[in-house]
Amino acid sequence: MLADRRILAVVPARGGSTGIKLKNLRTVGGVPLVVLAARIAVETPFIDRAVLSTDHPGIAEAGREAGLAVPFMRPEALSGPRVADWDVLVHALTEMERLDGVRYDIVVMLQPTSPGRRVEHVRSTVEKLVEGDYDAVWTVSETDSKAHPLKQLTIDPQGRLDYYDPAGACIVARQQLEPVYHRNGIAYAITRHCLLEQKSIKGARTGAVIIEDRLVNIDTEFDLVLANFLAKELSKS
Questions:
Q1: Which terminal Cβ of the chain has fewer Cβ within 10 Å, N or C?
Q2: Which domains does the chain have, with CATH numbers?
Q3: 3-class SS at 161?
């Protein structure tokens, strides 16, 4: 608990990933991604319950051995590639409240595909939610200026190049760009009210924790190579 708030951590890890087969069982630093997420969930002191939401027996076994509870298997309706995080979290929340006979005030989502996570990242996210009385708090990273929305281009069906945003035509130097941020998947802390009443993982009042570490959110084989490289470099320091 934190400030009398009962906290449920959910590690979502379906088996049917398309970009990388069984992505959540691939390894970074020799450890499966789902196990890395499980370790942080278990080590974060104020988390009252840490569960795995999966549809795959192998992922379930790995998560269970790493300390996560696996009291249910995700239904087929929540196992497809276009299922929203909100659906998965609401299912986990309602199932755990039914099974445990308690009310959870905060849900923390820890996605295995962000292996650079540390306990202090999760702690900062939940503390900001509670202390700032937010509906939700997400961790984010500053987007490299080369990927700024005002520097993006489109190509129409006739092959013609244009600016994604017409305002991009006025940009001549990166110093003109206002910083923008992207989700890094490290942690999402969301109140029960936000999930069940506002029906969203981003409520009317959502805060951010900016993480300045070098992070990789894994979608491709190259991302795995990069994540393993960073893990190796960090192990030297």
A1: C
A2: 7-142+180-236 (3.90.550.10), 144-178 (no CATH)
A3: strand
